[in-house]
Design a protein that fits this description.
Layout (H helix, E strand, L loop, with lengths): L3 H10 L1 H9 L3 H5 L12 E5 L5 H7 L4 E5 L3 H11 L4 E3 L14 E6 L8 H14 E13 L13 H10 L2 E10 L3 H5 L3 E9 L4
Parallel strand pairs: 1-2, 1-4, 2-3, 4-5
Antiparallel strand pairs: 5-7, 6-7
Helix pairs in contact: 2-5
Length: 204
């Protein structure tokens, strides 16, 4: 088990290299399997763990109001340089997301983040995401599967356990999508992903 600070340290130390890697991935390909799950524009969207803002900028270009949440200064700086002021940038991290206070969003996008959280943090993070999602709003979370890289803070994830965690937090699973990795190295090593599309139950 590790602390979230370990992951943040690694991202900070490798921000320049990671920025190039993130931007080499085509956002159109990332969103292709998710297209039918996205809200109509304009919607309020939060991209948690936004990295360089590649995905946030893609969403903003389609008319959405997007908040990019990224704790690593080097990645935020790279994102602002690449994508300008198309999105609102916030420095914060799961599970607390205190900077977002009591705001709510129509969609929360959590891509390639969940496996950096340990069990306790995932429990708290799911509850916090439920607080930040408006009634009828959605959360899209990607779950990493495959070999764990040496020396990196990556947790093994069970899709069924994460679905159960989401349902206990007040979400309903509306779709589960299996995809290959978008990075060549990860594909070669057998890394795959599961997208969970969760909808906030309207309890009003």
């Amino acid at each position: 088990m590790y602390t979230g600070n370990e992951a943040l340290r690694i991202y900070a130390e490798n921000a320049e290299q990671l920025a190039e890697r993130y931007e080499s991935v085509d956002a159109d390909a990332v969103f292709a399997p998710l297209a039918r799950l996205l809200p109509d524009a304009p919607a309020r969207i939060a991209d948690i763990g936004a990295g360089t803002g590649r995905d946030a900028a893609w969403l903003a270009a389609r008319g959405h109001s997007v908040t990019a949440v990224e704790p690593t200064q080097g990645l935020r700086k790279a994102g602002i340089a690449r994508h300008g002021d198309r999105v609102e940038w916030v420095s914060d991290t799961l599970p607390d997301l205190t900077t977002l206070d009591n705001r709510t969003f129509d969609l929360i996008f959590v891509n390639a983040v969940w496996h950096h959280l340990n069990e306790n943090s995932r429990e708290a993070a799911m509850k916090r995401l439920a607080e930040l999602t408006c009634a009828g709003g959605r959360v899209l979370i990607s779950l990493r599967h495959g070999p764990l890289p040496k020396g990196q803070p990556v947790e093994p994830l069970s899709t069924e356990q994460e679905i159960d965690r989401a349902e206990r937090a007040g979400f309903e699973l509306i779709q589960r999508i299996e995809t290959d990795s978008r990075q060549e190295h990860n594909r070669q090593t057998g890394v795959t992903w599961t997208w969970l599309a969760l909808e906030q139950r309207d309890i009003s």
